[in-house]
Amino acid sequence: MLAKTISKIFFLGMLASSALLSSCKEEKIGEVEDIPGLGGDTWVPGPVDKWILDSMTTPYNISAKYKWDQFEFGNITKTLVPPDEAQVIPLLRTITKAWTIPYVQEAGKVFYNKFSPKFFILSGSNEYNAEGSVTLGTAEGGRKVVLFGVNLFKIKGMQGYNAAEDSSFVKDWFLHTIHHEFGHILHQTVLYPVEYKNITKSLYQGGNWINWSNEDARRDGFVTAYSSLNFDEDFVEMIAMMLTEGKAGFDKIVNSIPEGTSPRGVTKAQAQASLRQKEAIVVAYYKNTWNIDFYSLQKRVRGSMNQLF
Amino acid sequence: MKKLFLCLLFVAPALFSCENSDDTLFEESADTRLNAALASYEKLLVDAPYGWNAIIYPKGGGTYGFHFKFNDQNRVVMYSDFSAETAAKPKESSYRLKAMQTPSLIFDTYSYLHILSDPNPDVNGGGVGEGLQSDFEFSIFPDSLKEETVTFVGRKNQSRLVLTKATQAQATAYANGDLAKAVLFNNISKYQTYFKRITVGNITYEITPNQQTRTIKLTWLEGNVPKNFTTGYYFAGASLIFLKPLVNGSQTINGFTNFTWNANPTQLRFSAGGANTVVQEAIKPLSVDIAAVRRWWQEPVESGGDWRTEFGFHVNGVDDAFGVKDLEYEDKQYAYYSYVPGGDTRYEVFSPIFFTADALFQEYGHLGEPPTFTADGRIILTARGTFGAVPTSGPAINSVNLLYEKSGYYLIQTSETTYDMVSAKDAKAWISWE
Asked: What span is annotated as the signal peptide, if there is one (chain A) (predicted)?
């Protein structure tokens, strides 16, 4: 025991002396403050940079990268192009109006700044996948959200805006994506009640969701085809659809389920009941976990969207 | 024993680390030199008082002309010969120099240069998800820099970008919309005839431009012998520039300039080799490849294949003039139109092919007699009968009626495996077979 203690002290002594000895001839490490690329890329800031700083970074601690950096994108073999500068502010302003402000008003800045993703990465074009689909957006670890197709984005007042096409495009594309990803952050922080998983437990499709249309999926009690991938996607798709469609829109989806029994044996009444149960759990989850009145949040999101389109 | 080793382990660094002067080959650190290099490259780009004339050679083919003006605020203003709009209206975007595996020049927000790279085929007519395989991030190599000319290599597709210092007159020309005048040349596609000719000096050339691949083919006769010349091209200032000049006897053509365009009547004028010329319609080739019709007809007979076209007839300037792409048969979708020569004994078959998820179907079609080959190089097709439930009107009937046009067709071989079948009546209708 004693021997052990001695040897410990001895080692510590050696450790200290080796540090002392080796530091006897310390060299300067050079101009560390001037290593290229350290601390990120630099350029002369312009109006877009100022807008991002004033409207996102200062109030919400969120950065948005719109200048090209291939390595921000998950798959660097894909051909992408950077956003057109003229598109950046309209897109980010839309996201702020239809996502940031409703949450801040409903749940407070502390909540929002704590949980919102901090890095937005923008790509001008879509990401094309081998099987013919395109990727709309991706999220990594609740910190970073990548939005594709920024150059295709159009809202009221922009040149070439076509209400019929563009409103649903922006809704289903950018706003759906951001509400979807934020939903993931929330349930990854505090999981939703397990009863949610029992509602349509036997009907999840896994990777086969891609072969289903939204209409098919709704007959089984899923709000979108993608919902049927797994429990978590189902939960956040419910959040995204309920917020971007609004209460009336969601009711319309539930009521539009046709008569009869789905190929997988679900009746109209069962499918509608499943969607209503899921809705109730989402609402209760927001109230009990985050103290957010979901229906009030829904009204704010939908209200801001009505101004944009 | 073990402890002894451990002790040595600790002592060792103490002994070695006192002697650690790291003499370097260079006087300054790598980072300092890299920063200096980046700054000098930027200075070179910015210091050109009238900007740079640029040519890019995308991996996907073609050649495109640009004019860039860089400033020291990471901004660049450019013109591009991609379209009438990009040639007329300058666009400002951003750029930066960055130390990557090599020092790199990045055009980092969307500009005319990115149009070529855009993976959306609606933007540039390129492949889905890859565009024209061009670049907007470029490596800078030490030997790429010369005082008047700079050559960069694309990081993704290895496209070459060559910058040449512009003169004051050239910069003024871009600002005055000269490039927009040059791209008036693109209106040549508005001539309705397949064949077009220009006369330069006393030589008549057949001119065959391909605007997607950016090539021009010129054909002329020496006595009765046809000669061909093919070159890539791009636009700079008010001119179309050949990548290589045509030297034909005493005549040298480097490109075309002084364009004027009149829509009605269709008339494109320009000067070539110092002489003025006007593009004229022609209803037959300058030199008919008389053997082409038999080659075309014989090929599937021997290989057992067929000729296919997705769009059917182009007529009077309209692609898929009869709308064959909208054909349907019950629940089956249109795939392509097929022509199967029958050989010397059997019927010729002209029919649409339909598809479902897992199979192709030939539901109906038109049968033709063995064709007539004329001495002047035409093929004449005539009706024999039909099979299946042939519709009584619509795209299929319009197509077959034109196919049996009694003047017949010339066959123009456009590549080893493709032919254009051009109406001998007026050269305003054709099918591209592949």
From this structure: 1-22
